[in-house]
Design a protein that fits this description.
The protein is of the alpha+beta class. Helix content is 16%, strand content 34%. It has 2 domains: 156 residues, Box (Proliferating Cell Nuclear Antigen); 197 residues, DNA Polymerase III, subunit A, domain 2 (DNA Polymerase III, Chain A, domain 2, Roll), CATH 3.10.150. Keywords: DNA damage, DNA repair, Nucleus.
């Protein structure tokens, strides 16, 4: 008698899984943790940049995890994310339409039924994990053709509870902004033209520039993208201190440390910021946060376009007006350690309270 696997999940859209995992595929291996609420993937490089994505159980038509009552998750393990992506696209998953969607995410134009993107929407993906330490089995089925791949699993380098993530102190944030992700993507693309070595984040709630990004150290000189305030001519309300925000932001808060004259300035390695480029281009919205230690978090909300598993796809106008259901969006989070002088800072403290701020982003209209 064959033992029941400890974990089984089935998705009717391998494309969704491939898209989310490719956003963080900037390193060879990913650490995986299977919990009662979904699957968490984490990729890091040199302890200065980390990419996280969470595949919520709502993305799967079947999600079975056999744990004891006192257990919340399986022991973490690592796999080759490169091999996983190759498996998911074994039937030729194509890129989404190249036409630009001003709200981010997938374009509503998929061509006719014979175009590659349309054909790529089919296929189911079954993920099976027999027991801790066993291979992770991926089964892709397209029509009458079935392909099964057994991927070796490895011990995780660090348990998430101990030292598995770059810490972000949510109780000591000095910058918090929510904006359309395409604005941030355009700014980073513009700065890339001078090939900078560092990115300076400059923010204030008292004086201009309220929010700007500066590329420094490039062979063609420095460059700056400044996000303009709401209005240069708006009068200050009587009895209140005028606090403006950049026009393109929906939420903007700066709590600068004492003695900094209400302004924060922090540098990051530019090449590391580019690791988030794919998520930046696909996302609908982004939450930009920085804590008092300088750790930067870019959390992207990606509208999956075709719902959780029903194949129904909303057009761009619906995406702007209607609230997003839990299964129709996913979140990808990047963490960056700041540059300290000429050295890259590194913090080894644990982040035991890591969660995706799903409710916060969902409450802000795109």
């Amino acid at each position: 008698m064959v033992d029941q696997p400890v974990f089984t999940a089935v998705s009717t859209s391998a494309r969704q899984l491939h898209t989310l995992l490719r956003c963080i595929a900037f390193s060879q291996r990913a650490e995986v943790q299977i919990t009662r609420s979904g699957i968490r993937f984490s990729v890091e490089e040199a302890r200065v940049v980390q990419g996280l994505t969470f595949l919520d159980k709502a993305l799967f038509s079947t999600f079975n995890l056999n744990l004891d009552e006192d257990q919340h998750s399986l022991p973490p393990f690592s796999i080759s994310i490169v091999a996983l992506l190759e498996t998911l696209q074994i039937f030729g998953i194509a890129e989404t339409s190249a036409s630009r969607n001003p709200y981010g995410g997938f374009s509503s134009s998929y061509g006719n039924a014979f175009t590659a993107p349309a054909l790529a929407l089919g296929g189911t993906c079954r993920i099976t994990y027999q027991h801790a330490g066993a291979p992770l089995t991926i089964t892709i089925q397209e029509g009458s053709v079935t392909t099964t791949c057994e991927m070796n699993t490895y011990d995780a380098h660090d348990a998430y509870e101990d030292d598995g993530g770059i810490p972000l102190d949510r109780n000591a944030l000095c910058l918090k902004a929510i904006m359309r992700s395409t604005w941030l993507h355009d700014a980073i693309t513009e700065l890339s033209g001078t090939n900078p070595t560092a990115l300076m984040l400059n923010a204030s709630n008292r004086s201009t520039p309220y929010f700007s990004l500066e590329g420094e150290g490039g062979p063609f000189g420095d460059s700056t993208v400044e996000f303009m305030p709401e209005s240069k001519n708006d009068p200050t309300p009587s009895g209140t201190r005028g606090k403006k925000r950049p026009l393109i932001t929906e939420t903007f808060s700066v709590v600068a440390p004492s003695g900094s004259h209400g302004r924060i300035r922090q540098r990051y390695k530019f090449d590391m910021l580019k690791r988030a480029g794919r998520a930046m281009a696909l996302a609908t919205k982004v939450s930009v946060r920085q804590d008092q230690q300088g750790v930067l978090s870019l959390q992207f909300m990606i509208d999956l376009g075709d719902g959780a598993n029903n194949g129904a796809r909303r057009d761009d106008t619906d995406a702007a007006a209607a609230p997003l259901s839990p299964g129709s969006v996913a979140f990808v989070d990047f963490r960056f350690v700041p540059l300290l002088g000429d050295e890259e800072g590194s913090d080894s403290d644990a982040d035991t309270g890591e969660e995706f701020d799903v409710q916060e982003l969902n409450n802000v209209s795109p």
